[in-house]
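Lab notebook page, bench 4
Experiment: in silico fold of construct C2
Operator: M.H.
Input chain length: 99 residues
Purpose: comparison with the prior construct
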Amino acid sequence: MATLTYTYQDATAVLGPLAAVADPHGYDLCARHAEQVKPPMGWEVIRLAPRMEPAGRTQDELTALAQSVRERGRTPPAGGYPDSVAVSGSRHGHLRLVP
């Protein structure tokens, strides 16, 4: 839900959105713990996101992803399909190529 990092030199704890990459000096927190963060005495807490909201896909992102998959399926890859799948109606495992 949120990532907590410390700046020891400035005696500051920074609580912000969940980090996209792992940081050995950052701590990922759930919503409950992000709300209850208490820094050491004399430290300041900077909250970069006043309201923590669960990360998730929006309807727009899901629609864009579905459209991208549809478009990719409509056009053959550059150089065509490999010979193993070029035969119409052939079976490979549980998948079947349908014209």
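Observations: The longest strand covers residues 2-7. The first helix runs from residue 31 to 35.
Next step: discuss at group meeting.
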